[in-house]
Amino acid sequence: MGEANGNAYESLARHTEPMISTDLPGPKGRAVIDADAQVTSPSLPRAYSFVPDRGAGAVIKDVDDNVFLDFNAGIAVCSTGHAHPAVVGAIEEQAAKLLHYSASDFYLPVYAEMCARLADIAPMDCPSRVFLTNSGTEAVEAAIKLARHNTGRQYIMSFFGSFHGRSYGSVSLTASKANYRADFGPLLPGVLHAPYAGRFDSFTGLAGSGDFGGEPAEPDLDYINDVIFKRLAKPHEVAAIVVEPILGEGGYVVPPRSWLLQLRNMCDAHGILFVADEVQSGIGRTGSMWAMQHFDLQPDIVLTGKGIASGMPLGGMVARAGLMTWPLGTHGSTYGGNPVSCAAGLATLDLVAGGLMDNARTIGDFLMAGLKDLEQRQPAIQEVRGLGLMIGVELPSPLVADAIEIAAFKKGLLVLRAGDSTIRMAPPLIMNREQAAAGLRLFEEACAEGVAKSAGLVAEESMIRA
């Protein structure tokens, strides 16, 4: 990173308050949105009219020079913040040497180094092997293939509320929104779904009670044992259970350890592979390298993506070495483990292990304390939950959540919904205390405005119907 760019990074990154000087979107942003609407797929679910141009740390500027505090990080992707000099430097150095050569057919030093690093930090106390992909979704697809190949079984189980991607295999596991699956059938056969940690009733989707370390509303596996294993599939037919240690798109739900332990024991009893989808929760986001480490449990396979390379396309499947025995040519990827992405990934892991993971825990504790305090003063907040910088604020309805999300955006605070009515906070791990404090204040203001606006909309609709 040159001196001019370095100075620009420092100047933007030090902002602790948003600076909004135009309507949102501004004129340049509106022009981009209008042009985009003419040519891009209408399937893209844009949350609000934000048009980013440049980022630094936990701060991002739009094309109209409005400055925002980023509590979203590109959906938990920009783990080291925007344009971290160490990551940019690693990208520039590798790009100047070699942009691409396929690791499926040839040997790349940076690919081998990235695989070795992931194997070394994997949440398993045994030798591991690694398959690199372009994304978390591709890592899920690889896990489906490996599990079926290794076990010779057909069924894969996941959970209501879960999100594992939108490609054909991964969306078959996804069960967070019907819209992701509608009109694409038939989907992958042999996929089963169960309630997640007793927090979601399998029919209503309503959250129950219980924080991390406490007891869930239904802390057992009765549905799996009494419905799935008795009526749908025998245990010896199930190849793998794919579970998010913290439910991501389903609303940032933290399960009790007792539930994950029961799952782990059930897998051991029946020879079922335990696959931890840590695409959103991994790489330091929860204050540990992996969310599974909070529960002191080990998976057979762990999946990664999103924050692993600070925004460059990279994902991976890390499996116990004894499982990855599939023969030559069984699986591959032209771009997976691209050398530039691997260089970014190595720099990211250095930064996460070098202090950002600890910062995620410290700033996460600060945000949780502030949000818990706000929960006592703002009746609309139903629950605050999370670990590290993976925090969910449960609200009474999608209408209220949407109104708060937009109110926050207008104030220069970027947050994003998850689940039906949860606001997720997943800022870059580099966020400092001053930025976090400003975000708390702005979120409180947005809550007050959003609740009032949603109440007005409900009253207006009632009058129209009357």
Summary tags:
Aspartate Aminotransferase, domain 2, 466 residues, 12 helices, alpha/beta, seven-stranded mixed β-sheet
What structural category arises from helix and sheet content? Answer: alpha/beta
How many beta-strand elements? 15
* Helix content estimate: 40-55%
Radius of gyration: 22 Å
Q: Can you tell me the overall shape?
A: globular
Tally of individual helices: 12
Tell me which CATH architecture of one domain applies here: 3-Layer(aba) Sandwich
- The CATH class of one domain, by name, is Alpha Beta
The SSE order reads HHEEEHHHEHEHEHEHEEEHEEHEEEH
Strand order of the largest sheet: 4-10-9-8-7-5-6
Q: Assess the beta-strand content as a share of residues.
A: 5-15%
- CATH H-tier superfamily of one domain: Type I PLP-dependent aspartate aminotransferase-like (Major domain)
N-to-C CA distance: 62 Å
Mean pLDDT: 93
At CATH level 3, the topology of one domain is Aspartate Aminotransferase, domain 2
Unreliable residue stretches: 201-218
Main β-sheet: number of strands, strand sense, barrel status?
7 strands, mixed
